[in-house]
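Case study 2.
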Amino acid sequence: MSTPTRLSGLAPHLSDRVLAELTDVLGGAHVLTSRTARFSRARVPAPFPVHRWSQRVPDLVVLPGTSDEVAEVVRIANAYRVPLVPRDGGTGLTDGAVPVRRGIVVDVKRLDAVKEIDTANRTCTVGAGVNMLKLNEVLAPYGLIYPDDPASYPCSLVGGRIGTSGWSLVGSRYGHTRDLVLSFDLVLPTGRLIRVGDGGGRKVSKSSSGYQLKHLFMGHQGTLGIATEATLKLFPKPEAEFSPFWAFADYDDAHRCVRELAQAGVATFAGAVLFDEWKVDYLRRDDEAYIPQPRDVRALVCAVAYGNEDEVRAGAKRLMRVARDSGARYLGDEISQGDWAARHDRYATPLHGRTRGGQVAPMSWHCEDAAINHTELPAVRREWHAIVERLRERHDVFDDWGMFCYTSASTGVDYLTEIDIGIWEQRLDDETWGAWVDAKREIAAVALRHGGSISACHGSCREGEVDLVPLELGGGYDVMLDIKRTLDPNNVMNPGKYGLDRAYPAVAEGAEGEGTP
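Prediction:
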């Protein structure tokens, strides 16, 4: 182990004391102070100016192996007023796992045990460090699946899904994280360990006893505690899958088709997604894409259905008929099955974009997501692309990679609506970063003007959109401040996120802007 890192804001003797106490609890092998260990836990996929990375590196990293060890770590940090940041897979796109106030990163990857598989009640109990892909490998011999299916499926963890209230690609069939997690153990900011769910039972899915605390402690981006163990719903592994892709010559026809698919009443329907012409154009020049389409294709629609073979076969006929009546051209089995099977691959694939002059450039990927009602999608699409075009006109480090809209539920009432931006991260500086923050704020404002939510799945912690969270939530944001102040009196749990420093007036006066390292 390298020379111990001093904890920011503490006198040297207090820093040494904290390090000693953590080592007593976890053992020296699980208290990491090396540069590599710390820097590797300061990054998330969302782009950030390279020259400012070092400003948000933790002072040290701990890897607890049990819920009790997590509780002890939190108790020590709270006693010494040291900032704590929970980190699960680190795949989030809104900086929830980024230590903007340095301090201690609590990496939960050692909490990776599958503790129980209850085939009779179709549940399992697992540590927060369990990955969904690995969990489903364990469940496969039982004929069961855990169908929480984010784009980051191969690398995100159960605890992170709870902390972000994650969104699932097949949520229209099985529900999203909030629906699939029955209960979980949580360490509060003071070190107290509690269990929350729908009622007191670990495996209860509906209760009217007391406050429904489960949802309060989902999606808080690590500001209210650390999930350590969860009990999850399981489903029979589907016998069959149907995943058609269709091409359209007109965006409006594709837009109507997505609604018709969602509202067709097909019980096995798991979701539908709409790619606009900007996205189709990006896919044409993306070497990793499976669907290079001719220039007359202006939009793509994909649907997916899972279930028993006879049910999927019947539902597929209905979905194909709905798409045909909407003017769709089926792209064929090879493209349809291949692209859907690769839906997770691009999350971790090196990406590239183009400058205005056509130069190919290595670019990181970032997306702004919102929850938008179906009727508002065309207007939001026009306004969002206009924002990005103005950004590109001023700065050549940005590229418009298009939009997609994905059903949030089988009703088709609202959609995860995402615009993807290529960002030449190595060329970002304070000026271009400021321009990006302004654009993010504009994108969020458009979502609110059209009656939507700033974020459908990623959260709203980053500079730009976070400024509008109080506007979206109204009086509910004041309740958030009250809850944060009550549960975290010393502001140690992931401070600097969601603007919650406002709950502590003395801190807010001296704090930098939200999300700023």
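The CA atoms of residues 158 and 296 lie 42 Å apart.
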